[in-house]
Amino acid sequence: MDFTLDSEQTALRDAVRGLLGKAYGSSEDRRTVTKTDPGWDEKTWQRLAEMGALGLPFAEEDGGFGAGPVEVSIVAEEIGRVIAPEPYVEAVVLAGGLVAAAGTAEQRAEIIGALAEGTLVPAFAHTEAQGRYGQRAYAVTATKDGDAWTLSGVKEPVLGGARADLLVVSADVDGATALFLVQPDASGLTRTSYTTFDGGRAAHAAFDSTPATPLGEPGADQSAVIAQVVAAAQIAYGHESLGAMAFALETTTEYLKSRKQFGVPLMTFQALTFRAADMYVSLELARSTVTWATLVLLDADADATLEAASRAKLQVSKAGRHIGQEAIQLHGGIGMTAEYSVGHYTSRLTAIDHALGDGRYHLSALSETLDDHEVLEPLP
Amino acid sequence: MKLQLSDEDVAFRDEMRTFFTTQIPQDIRDTVTARRELSKDQIVRSMQAMNAAGIAVPNWPVEWGGKDWTPLQRHIWHEEMQLAGVMPPLAFNASMVGPVIAAFGSQEIKERFLPKTANLDIWWSQGFSEPDAGSDLASLRTTAVREGDEYVVNGQKTWTTLGQYGDWIFTLVRTDPNVKKQAGISFLLIDMTSPGLTVRPIELIDGGHEVNEVFFDNVRVPAENLVGEENKGWDYAKFLLGNERVGVAPVGSTKRTLAQAKEYAKTAGPGGTSLLDDPLVAAQIVELENDLLALELTALRVVANSADGKPHPASSVLKLQGTVLQQAVTELWVDLAGPNALATGAGDGSDVPDLARTATTNYLNYRKASIYGGSNEVQRQIIAGTILGLRG
Ligand SMILES: Cc1cc2nc3c(=O)[nH]c(=O)nc-3n(C[C@H](O)[C@H](O)[C@H](O)COP(=O)(O)OP(=O)(O)OC[C@H]3O[C@@H](n4cnc5c(N)ncnc54)[C@H](O)[C@@H]3O)c2cc1C
């Protein structure tokens, strides 16, 4: 058991931190980037590709770099520290992860290499306006005609859906949920983009007899694959949140030292410093749980990963709300403004909380397993 | 002790309910229940409809349009309007500057301002806070120097809510820098079209524009715009902030928003099923209803016992717990919206219900409620210090 980074991993962290620190040195940089479509910076994406960050989780024979969840977690956490708007978890871990897990060898060869090089940015079109969370697809259905497949129905909100060079779409096939690839120029596909409150973009994606290619085995139920890849993305989101929470706490701590009222710095008031201490407690508990979940994922036990991902997401949901809300409160009015950083961190933490299952969703899921164990044993 | 309202109060409640549900233009109530921002015009029309019926400023002296209502009736008025989806009369006019002018202003100032203030012909902004004077308001630095029959004002105010609509701003300014800080402050009314006054917008985290910075660069203000006596402004401000705290527990609007959330939950589950069948959702809503009940009963206990004019000590919990619950319900809304909470910018053609789209911007926006009007830390200080006698 070891929760520390080795020297190569530390070097990766420093490199990503350096790159993102340059791109998003101030929260004003991020605001400028998120104001125009696609809501993130193509050049920064390209630099991440050049550094190798986009190919980390994928096998070398598919065009990736053969690293694993720990390396992904390092990048995700650095993304979170500056709340970089680039769709790292969404495009690489989630959409790319599905291609890697479900695609045929040819599909993997075609897509993963391009994703790693930064030339192809995929998105996972899964969420449905009436679907809430989970692996099943209802609103988009797939129809087979000879060897050809078409999709009909609506996915929404699809994060990064309008900019995507390729959509990985979940669809209902006679009660099973299968995965398909849809090209951006496919007939009958209409994508309407809009902003999300955290500065991102989402789309209403309508499919009307839209030609689609099965990802992997045609028509097979892939909900188990979806669950595994979503779990990996939940864990990566956990790390993105850790970076964001750590920064929000640091910023708040600095503010308590520098802001003066009543002739003294705010840190004179224990009512406030103890609240910062509680934020630290939340952060460290979340860090332990999320890091543990990454190690479970590294161990590659499917059921254990699903559970660990839920536990991590639940812990992060609680911690993110606590730290996000307190970061604003302890700042007073300045924390409410778009010009200052902490409000954006709270926004982003809220967005991550509600993507891929929020705290309550995971609490429900875990409630179902309550009687499976006497006590929880974190180590195998 | 007795549970029932008197027949008279029941009749009063019915009268208020009828008024608010039939006499306030529907588009205004629809905007409030859609949890969207009211336009300036809607806020003005809403208050003018109330003023035409003589019920916009019941807390003012009767001769200036107030009502001889009991505290309980005033509470009923406030609750019924919120339950009906009606925005309370603009606080800057109705509960801040109006009562101060009525209590401390000269006859001339009262005649000049009070009728137009009640009818929102003048839109007032509140110019108290400064970048370095927030919780520590008395350390404010904007100066007003007397030159003949004018004051020359220099400095900056900030967080000025809806200052972009403001016609006039009531300010706290430093008129004597050489005394204890509370003793050198005056209450000055300033025309926002005066040369040298500029308003700069501040964008908030929900993307909205509701607060501003206001800069004063040698703004000349007629001395007759001083309210009451020079250097007594801090007393008037304390009077105003005291009023601001009474009736600030937004019980009615939180109740309405929670009821709406419960209704929304009925079809927000997967495939249109009811989320109320999820025991976690049900438990959370039950707890919120119960907490709101306790708060409403506390508000009622306070109004029933403050007939002698002195606020009941328990009134100090109203703002604190009122904002806690207001924020908890905005958070519930985001949870109910679930993945659809991301779709804030969705327009026509979206499949996401409108109330899911507005959930998160409201959640983020209402983080303000525990900061302004005396932050929740300040409220706790009042409870600890004034009520429990704990002064460290
Ligand atoms: C949306 C919004 C609208 C507003 N509208 C107006 C308006 O129209 N007009 C106007 O004049 N003002 C307005 N305000 C300003 C508001 O009154 C101030 O934000 C408030 O007084 C807090 O001051 P501050 O923001 O400078 O925070 P600070 O005073 O710097 O406080 C920062 C944090 O420290 C805490 N704190 C400060 N002192 C102590 C202490 N002694 N003990 C324990 N905790 C302490 C505070 O509670 C807060 O959590 C508005 C503010 C907001 C956010």
From TrEMBL, chain A:
One of its GO terms (molecular function) is flavin adenine dinucleotide binding. Its cofactor is FAD. Residues 235-352 form the Acyl-CoA dehydrogenase/oxidase C-terminal domain. Residues 7-118 form the Acyl-CoA dehydrogenase/oxidase N-terminal domain. CDD domains: ACAD. It comes from the Bacteria. Keywords: FAD, Flavoprotein, Oxidoreductase. Belongs to the acyl-CoA dehydrogenase family. PANTHER family: ACYL-COA DEHYDROGENASE, ACYL-COA DEHYDROGENASE FADE28. This is Acyl-CoA dehydrogenase. It comes from Aeromicrobium endophyticum.
From TrEMBL, chain B:
Its cofactor is FAD. Keywords: FAD, Flavoprotein, Oxidoreductase. Residues 127-219 form the Acyl-CoA oxidase/dehydrogenase middle domain. InterPro entries: Acyl-CoA_Oxase/DH_mid-dom (IPR006091), Acyl-CoA_Oxase/DH_mid-dom_sf (IPR046373), AcylCo_DH-like_C (IPR036250), AcylCo_DH/oxidase_C (IPR009075), AcylCoA_DH/ox_N (IPR013786), AcylCoA_DH/ox_N_sf (IPR037069), AcylCoA_DH/oxidase_NM_dom_sf (IPR009100), Mycobact_Acyl-CoA_DH (IPR052161). Residues 231-386 form the Acyl-CoA dehydrogenase/oxidase C-terminal domain. Residues 6-119 form the Acyl-CoA dehydrogenase/oxidase N-terminal domain. GO terms for cellular component: plasma membrane. GO terms for molecular function: flavin adenine dinucleotide binding; oxidoreductase activity, acting on the CH-CH group of donors. It comes from the Bacteria. Pfam families: Acyl-CoA_dh_1, Acyl-CoA_dh_M, Acyl-CoA_dh_N. Belongs to the acyl-CoA dehydrogenase family. This is Acyl-CoA dehydrogenase. It comes from Aeromicrobium endophyticum.
